[in-house]
C-alpha cells in the first residue's frame, strides 16, 4: 500500500514537471542548413530530453553488442571455475569416503579447470598417497613446498608418507621444517615432542609443553597434567643418581598435580632414604586421603627402614581406619596383619570383601590366612581355585601392557601419560622393571597344599 502511494506521488510529480516544461513561454529558433525551426521553448526542452534518452539507449545497445564476446568468454570461464570447484569438493568427499581412484580423477579434472588452484594439486597428492603411489605423491608435495600458502600442508603430507614408509628420521625432518614455518602447528609439535620423550630428552619436552598456548580451562588442565608427568619422568630418571634433583622434580610435579601418585612415591622414597620419615609420612597421608592408592599405603608402612612387621602394622592402622573404607585399604591392612601374624586382624580386614565376588588379591590373601592360621590346606586350596577365576584387581596398564610400576610412556605407542591405575580388560604382556621402593611389602607366593593345586601368580596387592 505504501509503495502504491509512493508510485502515485512520483507519477504526479513527473506529470506536473512535464506540463510545466511544455507550458514555458517563449520560442526557440533552430537553423540548420536551409532549415529553420521555431518550436516553443517547452517543446524544445522536452525534445532535447527525449533525444538524450534515445542516445543513451542506443549506446547501451551498441555497447552490449561490442562487449558480447567478452561476456561470453567470461561466462565460459565462470562455468569452468564452477565445474572445477564442484570437482574439487566432490574429490575431497570421495577421498574421505575411501574412494581414492575417483578422488584422483576429480583432482585432475579440478586442475584442468583451476590451473592455479593449489588445493587441486594437494587433493591429487593425498589421493596418490592413499593409493600407495608414493613417487607421484612425493613429487606433488615437493612442488607445493615452494608456495608458502601450501608449504605446511605439503610438509604434513610428506610427514605422513615418511611415517607410512617407516622413514622415522625423514618424518622428523619434515616436522622440524614445519615448525620453522608455523611454530604452533599441532601435528609438527606433537611429532617433535614424541621424539623428545621417546629419547628421554625431558628438559626440552618440558620447555615445549611450557610454550604451549592454553586458553580454555580444559587446555590449561591438560597442560598442567602433561607438565606433571614430564616432571615425574625427570624425577624417575634422576632418582638413583641425583636424589636431590629428583626430589625437586617430584615436588614440582605435585605442585602441578597434587594427588599424582607416581610423583608422591618418588618424593616419599627420597625422604625415607634421607631419614626424613615424618615428611614422607605426611606426604603419603595426604595423597592416600585423595587417592586411596595401595602403593601409597604400602610405602607409608615402610617409611622407616628396618621397622619390624609389628611396627609396620601399627603404622598402617594409623593410616587406615577399621573397618577399612575401601578394598585398597583392606588389602594393605590385611597384608600388614599377615606379615605380623595377626590372623584375626587380617580376616577382619577382609570381612567386607571376601563374601560377595572377591577379587584375585582377596582370594590369595584369604588362602594365606587359612593356611597360616589353622593350617587348613583344603580351604586354602579352595581360595586358590577361586582366585584363578576371580575378577582382577587394578594395576598399572597401558595399551594392553601391565607394568609393575608406573612409566611415563606407553611401551607400545610411546604415548605420554598412557599408564592408568585400573582393572585391565585384557593384557598381552607384563612389564617388570627395577624397583626403587625401600623394603616394599611383597606378597609371598602361598605354598601349594597338594600337587594338583592350580598354579596362580599371587597378586594380593598389585605392584605399582
Describe what this molecule looks like in 3D.
With 464 residues, the chain is mainly alpha-helical. The protein is 65% helix and 4% strand. It has 19 helices and 6 strands. A hairpin with a 2-residue loop joins strand 3 (395-398) and strand 4. It is elongated, with a radius of gyration of 42 Å.
- The arrangement of helices and strands along the chain is HEEHHHHHHHHHHHHHHHHHHEEEE
Radius of gyration: 42 Å
The strand line-up of the biggest sheet is: 5-3-4-6
Please estimate the helix content: 55-70%
Largest sheet: 4 strands, mixed
Q: Estimate the global geometry from the Cα principal axes.
A: elongated
Average pLDDT over all residues = 84
Q: Quick one: how many beta strands?
A: 6
**Low-confidence parts, pLDDT < 50 over ≥5 residues?**
434-464
**In DSSP terms, counting alpha (H) and pi (I) runs of 4 or more, how many helices?**
19
Report, as a whole number of angstroms, the end-to-end distance.
83 Å
Summing up helix and strand content along with how strands pair, one would put the structural category as mainly alpha
User: Which range does the strand content fall in?
Assistant: under 5%
Write the layout of secondary structure elements.
Layout: H1 2-22, E1 30-32, E2 35-37, H2 41-97, H3 100-113, H4 118-131, H5 134-145, H6 148-164, H7 168-181, H8 186-198, H9 202-211, H10 217-238, H11 243-256, H12 261-273, H13 277-291, H14 294-301, H15 309-319, H16 327-339, H17 343-349, H18 360-373, H19 377-389, E3 395-398, E4 401-403, E5 420-422, E6 429-431
Parallel strand pairs: 4-6
Antiparallel strand pairs: 1-2, 3-4, 3-5
Amino acid at each position: 500500500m505504501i509503495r502504491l502511494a509512493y508510485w502515485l506521488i512520483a507519477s504526479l510529480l513527473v506529470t506536473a514537471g512535464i506540463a510545466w516544461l511544455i507550458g514555458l513561454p517563449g520560442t526557440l529558433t533552430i537553423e540548420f542548413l536551409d532549415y529553420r525551426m521555431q518550436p516553443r521553448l517547452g517543446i524544445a526542452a522536452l525534445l532535447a530530453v527525449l533525444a538524450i534518452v534515445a542516445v543513451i539507449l542506443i549506446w547501451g545497445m551498441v555497447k552490449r553488442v561490442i562487449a558480447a564476446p567478452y561476456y561470453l568468454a567470461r561466462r565460459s570461464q565462470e562455468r569452468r571455475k564452477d565445474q572445477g570447484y564442484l570437482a574439487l569438493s566432490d574429490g575431497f568427499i570421495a577421498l574421505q569416503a575411501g574412494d581414492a581412484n575417483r578422488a584422483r580423477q576429480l583432482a585432475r579434472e579440478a586442475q584442468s579447470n583451476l590451473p592455479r588452484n593449489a588445493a587441486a594439486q594437494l587433493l591429487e597428492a593425498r589421493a596418490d598417497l592413499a593409493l600407495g603411489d608414493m613417487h607421484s605423491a612425493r613429487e606433488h608435495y615437493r612442488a607445493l613446498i615452494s608456495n608458502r600458502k601450501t608449504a605446511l600442508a605439503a610438509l604434513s603430507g610428506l610427514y605422513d608418507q615418511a611415517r607410512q614408509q617407516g622413514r622415522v628420521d625423514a618424518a622428523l625432518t619434515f616436522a622440524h621444517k614445519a615448525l620453522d614455518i608455523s611454530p604452533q602447528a599441532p601435528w609438527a609439535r606433537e611429532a617433535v615432542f614424541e621424539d623428545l620423550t621417546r629419547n628421554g630428552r625431558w628438559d626440552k619436552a618440558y620447555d615445549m609443553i611450557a610454550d604451549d598456548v592454553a586458553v580454555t580451562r580444559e587446555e590449561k588442565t591438560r597442560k598442567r597434567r602433561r607438565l606433571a608427568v614430564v616432571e615425574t619422568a625427570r624425577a624417575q630418571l634422576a632418582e638413583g643418581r641425583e636424589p636431590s634433583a629428583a626430589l625437586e622434580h617430584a615436588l614440582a610435579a605435585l605442585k602441578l598435580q597434587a594427588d599424582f601418585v607416581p610423583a608422591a612415591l618418588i618424593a616419599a622414597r627420597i625422604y625415607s632414604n634421607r631419614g626424613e620419615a615424618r615428611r614422607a609420612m605426611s606426604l603419603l597421608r595426604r595423597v592416600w586421603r585423595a587417592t586411596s592408592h595401595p602403593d601409597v599405603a604400602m610405602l607409608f608402612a615402610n617409611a622407616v627402614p628396618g621397622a619390624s612387621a609389628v611396627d609396620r602394622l601399627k603404622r598402617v592402622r594409623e593410616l587406615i581406619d577399621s573397618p577399612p573404607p575401601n578394598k585398597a585399604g583392606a588389602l594393605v591392612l590385611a597384608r600388614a596383619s599377615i606379615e605380623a601374624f595377626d590372623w584375626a586382624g587380617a580376616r577382619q580386614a577382609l570381612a567386607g570383601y571376601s563374601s560377595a565376588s572377591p577379587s584375585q588379591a582377596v582370594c590369595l590373601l584369604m588362602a594365606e590366612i587359612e593356611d597360616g592360621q589353622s593350617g587348613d590346606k583344603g580351604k586354602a586350596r579352595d581360595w586358590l581355585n577361586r582366585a584363578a577365576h576371580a575378577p582382577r584387581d587394578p594395576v598399572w596398564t597401558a595399551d594392553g601392557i601391565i607394568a609393575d610400576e608406573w612409566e611415563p610412556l606407553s611401551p607400545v605407542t610411546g604415548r605420554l601419560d598412557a599408564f592408568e591405575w585400573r582393572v585391565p580388560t585384557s593384557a598381552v604382556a607384563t612389564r617388570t622393571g627395577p624397583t626403587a621402593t625401600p623394603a616394599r611389602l611383597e606378597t609371598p607366593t602361598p605354598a601349594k597344599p597338594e600337587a594338583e593345586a592350580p598354579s596362580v601368580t599371587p597378586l594380593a596387592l598389585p605392584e605399582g
